[in-house]
Amino acid sequence: NILIRTIGNPAKRLREEPLRILRAIRFSLVLDFEIEESLVFAINKYGSKLSEIKNEKIKEEIKKMKDAGVSIYDIRSEFKKFNVLPGLKI
Fold first, then answer.
1. What is the pLDDT, as a whole number, of residue 59?
2. Is the Cα torsion angle 44, 4, 18, 56 positive or negative in sign?
3. Which of 5, 18, 62, 90 has a 20 to 30 A CA-CA distance from 56?
4. Total domain count for the chain?
């Protein structure tokens, strides 16, 4: 399987740009890639940083997932798995 990973320290990269969390999830769902273990750990740890991102950017990433044929169920399941945006209504 192809792994999604960051260049450098995953925690540092996600703190720099929390939107990378949604991008990793999108690539995982759309391309059927696996997320590398240290990135999974960082996503779980820093998922709450997504609250710093503008809603429009979050909607854009979710729309890209839906436009690529990912079901709402699968999106919700991944978000739940990573504890990302727990209060989000899709």
1. 94
2. negative
3. 5
4. 1
